[in-house]
C-alpha cells in the first residue's frame, strides 16, 4: 500500500466542526445514463437537490485508475518537491492593482481588453497545500489545480523528482476528455428534459475551444490527531458552491463529502468509486433563472483513510454572457440577475471567501 505524505501541520489553524455527525444522504438521486428516460429524473434532481449520482457511464475505469495512480505518485513525494509545482503567478488580471505597482501595472492596464483577458483572473494553477484561493481560506487538503486548456504548462511538474509531467498530462487529458464528453451528454439530456431547443445550449459552452474549465485533484490525508484537538471533525475543504455550470466529481472509497439540503441540514454522501457525483454550479442556477440551485457542499477529513478526489468544473468561455435562457422564462417572468459575463463573475468569485454567496452581488432584487 502506498503511504501518502501529510501536509505540513505547522501553523495550521485547525478548523473544528463540533456539531453532531450528519446522517447519510441515502436517497440521493441516481441517474442511469444508459436509460433514455433519465432526462426527466436529471431535471427533478437538479430542481430538488442540485446534486445527483451517475451510474452506467462510459468513462473507462482504466483512465480513472491511471490518473489515480499518477496522483498518488505525485502526492507521495516530499513536500519540498511538491512545492516546486506551486502556482507561478498569484496576481492575474483583477488582482494586479493589489499585487503589483508602478509601470508594470500601468502598462498592463493600458493594453487592449482582448490582451488583458488573456491574463484572466489570478493564476491559481499548480500545487497547493492547505491554502484554498487567495483570500485566507484553509483546509486539511493538498491539491493540484489545472486549466483544462491545452496550453496549460505541465512543465511546472518537470522539476519535481520522480514525477514525469508528460505522464500527468496524458492521464489528465484522457480522463478530462471522457468526463467532458459525459458532462455534455448530461447537459444535453437536461436541456431535453427542460424542453429547450437546440439541446446543445449548455453543452456548446463546454465544447467551445475557449471554454474556461478547470480540473482539480484533491488529496485529504487522514488526520489521526483529531481527538487531540478535542474535535469531532476537521474541515478538509470548507463549504462553498461551485461558480461554473456543472461539476463532476469522482473519489476513492473514502467518505467525507457532504451536501447542504434545502431543509438546512448537512448530509454525508456515501462514497462510490465507480460512479460520478454531479453538482449544479452558480452559472447553471443563473441560466435557469434560479429554477436549479447550485448546491453547497464541503469535505470533512477522515481519521484513518486518505481521500482522493478528481473534479472537472465545466465553465463557459470568458466572454460568454451568463443570463437566464429566454425559453425558460414563463409569461411575465423577468431575470432575477443583472447582466454579466463569465469573466466578470469569475473575477468577482476569485476575490471572495469560500463560504460566501457569490451570486448575491449579481442579484437584481
Ligand atoms: C470552488 C470551485 C473550484 O475548486 C475552484 C475554486 C477556487 C480556487 O480554489 O481557487 C475558489 C473557489 C472555487 C470559489 C471562491 C474562490 C475561488 C477558491 C476561493 C476562495 C477552482 C473555482 O473555480 O472556484
UniProtKB/TrEMBL annotation:
Key words, A-Z: Dioxygenase, Iron, Metal-binding, Oxidoreductase, Vitamin C
Keyword Disulfide bond included in the entry's annotation: no
EC number from the UniProt entry: 1.14.11.13
GO molecular function ontology, one term from the record: gibberellin 2-beta-dioxygenase activity
Gene3D superfamilies for this protein: B-lactam Antibiotic, Isopenicillin N Synthase, Chain
Pathway linked to the protein: Hormone biosynthesis; Plant hormone biosynthesis; gibberellin biosynthesis
Catalytic class of the enzyme: oxidoreductase
Short name of any one Pfam family annotated for the protein: DIOX_N
Catalysed reactions, semicolon-separated: gibberellin A1 + 2-oxoglutarate + O2 = gibberellin A8 + succinate + CO2
Stretches assigned to the Fe2OG dioxygenase domain: 210-316
InterPro entries named in the record: DIOX_N (IPR026992), IPNS-like_FE2OG_OXY (IPR044861), IPNS-like_sf (IPR027443), Iron_ascorbate_oxido_reductase (IPR050231), Oxoglu/Fe-dep_dioxygenase_dom (IPR005123)
GO biological process, one term: response to molecule of fungal origin
Record has Iron as a keyword: yes
Function: Catalyzes the 2-beta-hydroxylation of several biologically active gibberellins, leading to the homeostatic regulation of their endogenous level. Catabolism of gibberellins (GAs) plays a central role in plant development. Converts GA9/GA20 to GA51/GA29 and GA4/GA1 to GA34/GA8.
Family label: Belongs to the iron/ascorbate-dependent oxidoreductase family. GA2OX subfamily.
Name under which the protein is recorded: gibberellin 2beta-dioxygenase
Organism of origin: Solanum tuberosum (Potato)
